[in-house]
């Protein structure tokens, strides 16, 4: 059985994982924040995707909450599944 403590990860791989995770988190935070602010391009794009304009704020709150769940190690799996 392979234990996580037994595996060695290079520094490049370690930092590449952190950078990629950080980029995804920043993207989702930006997306959720823009849905809360609701500038015209965001409203237009969301409506073009088939969502009603009245639901944009709720979608933004959901995206932000799920992103926060995915950043906490204890709830990361739940946040990733919900996103």
Keyphrases for this structure?
elongated
Structural class: mainly alpha
Fraction in helix = over 70%
Count of helices? 4
Shape: elongated
Q: In whole angstroms, how far apart are the ends?
A: 31 Å
| Whole-number mean pLDDT | 91
Helix/strand order, N-terminal first: HHHH
> In percent terms, what proportion of residues is strand?
under 5%
Question: Biggest sheet, open or closed, and with what strands and sense?
Answer: none
Would you report the number of β strands?
Answer: 0
The stretches of 5 or more residues where confidence is low (pLDDT under 50) are none
**Rg of Cα set:** 17 Å
In a nutshell, what does this entry contain?
By secondary structure, the chain is mostly helical. It has helices at 11-37, 40-48, 56-71, 76-82.
Write the SSE topology:
Elements: H1 11-37, H2 40-48, H3 56-71, H4 76-82
Q: Mind explaining what this structure looks like?
A:
There is one protein chain. This protein has 83 residues and is mainly α. The chain has 4 helices and no strands. Helix 1 (11-37) packs antiparallel against helix 3 (56-71) and helix 3 runs antiparallel to helix 4. The longest helix has 27 residues, at 11-37. The radius of gyration is 17 Å and the shape is elongated.
